[in-house]
User: Fold this.
Amino acid sequence: MNIKKIIAATALATSLTGCYKADIPSTVVLLGDSLMQETSGGLAFQMLHNDSAPMLINNSMGGMMLAAVDADEYWGSRLDNIRAEADVDYVFVSLGINDIGFYKKRPNGINEMLAEIPQAIDNIAIAAQGAEVYWLVPHLAMQDSRLAGPEVDLMRDLLDQASQRWDNLNLVYIGNDHTLFEKDLIHLSGKGEGLVTREFLRKIGE
Assistant:
């Protein structure tokens, strides 16, 4: 190798030294339903679009419940298993909307929610101890959707009560501006997904 090539190679190596940050500043877990699943793509792109990005673990899927159909036995154990494999700093949650639809169809749904939802929320808060939980609260625009009814307000109230029980449980509200939602007034529009993404990203490192 001639002297010019040696000098060029040395200069390139020097210029690259220290350019990239390989550390992982935090680990983020996504838990949730279709709202989280649909938001996770844009959220992941924004979150991971740098060399020192957090580690992201996505456990969201359309149709997921919080408490109904034995989901209350799933989430705490699932989060325990995730934390056995990785230190977790932030847990972003979107759960409860599918439960509203489930309990709404049941004759004694309100009483069942009162009996089952608080413990299901607590299971997640307990499993997340030492990490910050940010929970996307079911939005009020659903009152104009097929899910309209007292179950929406009750779910919001139960989450509010849980946030007072648990120091690590923080609630994220996005209002009821109909432009934030699809025509069904349940799922997020592109604008709504962008808003949730910005809200969640803002929580990291606060």
